């Protein structure tokens, strides 16, 4: 398990601050109680820094690699809602929206949900409402990304939250990506909305925990079924 290249700057800052707090009692010969208190804070911050910016290996399902209609979770987290709406900015059609909430303890690396070509990318500055707020998808800072292949097109959003003050995405229009490829990161708690055509088949439900690049959440062809799902 490595450290995310998308957050190496923040990671180094966190490590330096943690070590400074840890060595502070030694440098200034502080009392035992204050020293223990600072050591606890320093080690807790150091552990959190390594934990938050971790980049674990993921096993992308072979089915998603071979079948372009398969849609993977682009982020770790919990499915907090699945709704229907009209997506009028890019797809111009009725869609199903799968919203995934990332807590500060989840892996924050983002991955491409599908294989295809990036045909749309735009960054929107905005507010920092809590990620599960109904208006967060539209009013918060976010990126809006569209990927298409021979089976159709989907869009998805990296949405900043009340703690997440930066979304990172390395994609640009014209890029070719494979399902499960790393594409960026959302820092310190956030939300991912995946918008699929209304005809798609959904394989997750509200409350499910998903893993980015591993969990199959939908398929562009609704008639497809997985055994035991």
SSE string, helices as H and strands as E: EHHEHEEEEEHEEEEEEEEE
Gross geometry: elongated
- What level of helicity do the residues show? 10-25%
Tally of strands? 16
Number of domains: 2
**Average pLDDT reading:** 89
Q: Quote the CATH topology of the largest domain.
A: Glucose Permease (Domain IIA)
| Strand line-up in the sheet with most strands | 11-7-8-9-13-5-4-15
Task: Provide a count of the helices.
Answer: 4
Classify the secondary structure makeup into a structural class.
Answer: alpha+beta
Largest sheet: 8 strands, antiparallel
The percent range for strand residues is 35-45%
Which CATH class of the largest domain is shown?
Answer: Mainly Beta
Radius of gyration: 20 Å
What CATH architecture label of the largest domain applies? Distorted Sandwich
Distance between the terminal alpha carbons, to the nearest Å? 31 Å
The oligomeric state is single chain
Question: Which stretches of 5+ consecutive residues score pLDDT under 50?
Answer: none
Question: Can you walk through the features of this model?
Answer:
The structure is a single chain. The mean pLDDT is 89. This protein has helices at residues 8-28, 32-52, 62-66, 136-139, and strands spanning 2-3, 54-55, 70-72, 77-87, 93-102, 109-111, 116-124, 142-149, 152-160, 167-169, 176-177, 182-186, 190-197, 201-202, 209-210, 216-219. The protein has 229 residues and is of the alpha+beta class. The two termini are 31 Å apart. The chain folds into two domains: 2-55; 62-219, Distorted Sandwich (Glucose Permease (Domain IIA)), CATH 2.70.70. The protein is elongated and about 65 Å long. Helices cover 22% and strands 36% of the residues. The strands form four sheets. The chain has an eight-stranded antiparallel beta sheet.
């Amino acid at each position: 398990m490595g450290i995310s290249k998308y957050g190496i700057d923040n990671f180094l800052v966190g490590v330096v601050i943690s070590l400074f707090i840890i060595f502070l009692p030694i440098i200034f010969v502080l009392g035992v109680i204050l020293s223990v208190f600072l050591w606890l804070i320093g080690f807790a911050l150091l552990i959190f820094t390594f934990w938050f910016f971790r980049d674990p290996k993921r096993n992308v399902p072979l089915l998603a690699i071979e079948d372009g209609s398969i849609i993977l979770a682009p982020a770790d987290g919990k499915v907090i809602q699945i709704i229907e709406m009209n997506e009028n900015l890019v797809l111009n059609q009725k869609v199903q929206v799968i919203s995934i909430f990332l807590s500060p303890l989840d892996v924050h690396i983002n991955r491409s949900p599908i294989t295809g070509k990036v045909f749309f990318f735009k960054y929107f500055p905005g507010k920092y409402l809590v990620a599960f707020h109904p208006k967060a998808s539209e009013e918060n800072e976010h990126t809006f990304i569209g990927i298409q292949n021979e089976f159709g097109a989907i869009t998805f959003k990296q949405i900043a939250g009340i703690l997440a003050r930066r979304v990172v995405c390395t994609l640009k229009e014209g890029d070719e990506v494979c399902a499960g490829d790393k594409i960026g990161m959302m820092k310190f708690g956030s939300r991912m909305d995946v918008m699929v055509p209304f005809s798609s088949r959904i394989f997750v439900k509200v409350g499910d925990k998903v893993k980015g690049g591993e969990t199959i959440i939908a398929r562009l062809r609704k008639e497809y079924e997985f055994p035991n799902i």
